[in-house]
Amino acid sequence: YFCFVFVILGSRGIGYLLHRDELLRAALSLSHARSVLVTTGFPTHFNHEPPEETDGPPGAIALAAFLQALGKETSMVVDQRALSLHTKLVEEAVKQGVLTTPIPILTYQGGSVEDAQAFLCKDGDPKSPRFDHLVAIERAGRAADGSYYNARKMNIKHLVDPIDDLFLAAQKIPGISSTGVGDGGNELGMGKVKEAVKKFIRNGDVIACDVEADFAVIAGVSNWGGYALACALYILNSCDIHERYLRRAIGPSRVAGEQSWTQALPSVAKEEKMLGILVQNQVRSGVSGIVGMEVDGLPFSGVHDEMIQKLVDATTKHK
Which of 42, 67, 80, 217 could lock onto 181 through a cystine, CB 3.0 to 4.6 A? Predict the structure, then answer.
C-alpha cells in the first residue's frame, strides 16, 4: 500500500495534502457500491475551445471501465457545455477498445438542494438513492467565495455547472459516499484538505476547493489517482477475505471474475489510445496548453507510460 502511495504521488510536492489510508478507504467504499456516478472536467484553458485539459477524463474513463468489469452500474455527469465532447470521447473509447461498454453521460444544472436531491434519488426520496458513491477526478471545485479557479487564480465560474451541489447533498443522504481525486487542491472534494492547500499550495488561499468528499485521494497527476483506484479495486476483489465480507454485504458477485478484471485494468496501450483521442478532439495539456501527447506538461512517453506500468506491476504482483 505504501509503495502504491509513493508511486501515485510522484515528485510534484503535493505530499503535504496526503491523508493516511484515503486510497484504501475509497476503494473499500467503491467495492461495496452498486451504482457509481463519476464526474470530471476542468476547463482551465478558458480562451480555447474546448477549454478542458487532458488530466481527468482518462482517469475517469479508466476507473469507469474497471467499475463496469465489477458489474457496477456506472454513469458520468459533466457540464452541459461539455456534453458533446465527452460523448465523443466515450464513443471513440469504445471503438478503440479502451471501454467495452458505453458510459451513460448525464448533466446537472439545478440550483437548489431540492434539485440535487431529486437528481441523486429516485422520486427525490433520500431513502432511495440512485447512486451509492460519487467520484470526482480532476473536476473543478468551488472555492469559499463561490467561484471556481484554475491554478493561476483565473476565475472560470462561467464554464462550470454546479455539480458540487451533488456532493454537498450526498453528505446528508444516508447510503451515498464520495471520493475526490486531485493534484492541486482546487478540485472537487479537496475541501477535506483545504487547510493544507491554503498553507502549502501556491495561491491556495484563493483557489482551495471548499467542498469536501468523504475520501480525498491525492496524486501527482489526477489521472494517476483514477488508475490507482482501479488497481486498488482489483487487489481488493482478488482477496478471498474481502470477497467473503463483500458477499455478506451485497450478495454473490454478478461478474465473470479475475480474467475480465485483468483485461479491464489500465494499460500503457489503452491509456496511450485514450490520450490520442483527447488530442484528436483538441483537448490541451493542463500546464503547457499544447495539443499533444502530454498531461500537466509531462510527456506520455517516459513519464505517464512508466507510471501506468509501475501501478499495473504493483497491482498484479498481489495476485
Answer: 217
